[in-house]
């Protein structure tokens, strides 16, 4: 999976604000109404979420996402590991129930 293509696809969703963006990382805030569309795109790109799931996260996945805040109950993680890189997308719902932070990157 090419991170550049991933960013292009997810940027078709309307974000309330973009917090950070470079060649290997994209972070933005969206409102709850946009979540269904974003989830549909992420599942098309990554397949089903790696978290939450019945399986535990591998040490490789934990190592990659730890530098970006890790993942906890109530959050969602999409993850793909390829020989040349690892690509992830994390969705962090806010306490207000209306906003979600998207963190996506390549490592």
Structure description:
The chain has 107 residues and is α+β, with helices and mostly antiparallel strands. It has one domain (3-106). It has three helices and five strands, in the order αββααβββ. It has a five-stranded antiparallel sheet, with helices on both faces. The N and C termini lie close together (12 Å).
Briefly summarize what is shown:
Helix content is 26%, strand content 32%.
- Note the run of SSEs as H and E: HEEHHEEE
Distance, first to last CA: 12 Å
Any low-confidence stretches, pLDDT <50, length ≥5? none
Our count of helices gives 3
- How many beta-strand runs? 5
Main sheet overview: 5 strands, antiparallel
Q: How confident is the prediction overall: mean pLDDT?
A: 91
Structural class category: alpha+beta
The dominant shape is globular
Fraction in helix = 25-40%
Identify the quaternary structure here.
single chain
Give descriptors for this structure.
107 residues; 5-stranded antiparallel sheet; alpha+beta
